[in-house]
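Sorry, explain these tokens?

***
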Amino acid sequence: MRLSEFEIESIKSLAKQHFGRNAQVFLFGSRTMNQQRGGDIDLLVRNPEGEQLTIRTKINFISDLILLIGEQKIDVVLENPFARNSGFLKTIYQTAIQLC
């Protein structure tokens, strides 16, 4: 996984702050592969308690994360309970690394 300990802790802390203490965050995409270089930070956020994840909360999370770890391309996918069986999410979960 190509994230620093500071980046991981920042993501975990801000996820709990913005999405709730039971929020789960998964890293997926090129940053999960140590042999690759560059790439954006792709995150999937889900809340197993069914709390609604909003676009406003997502934007605030990304803004605060950029303030902490610096300017980087960050993509955040919010898991929609109605799309849990989608091919897109199944593909993400096959290689994702759970951060919290």
About this structure: Residues 5-98 form a domain with the Beta Polymerase; domain 2 fold (CATH 3.30.460.10). The mean pLDDT is 91.
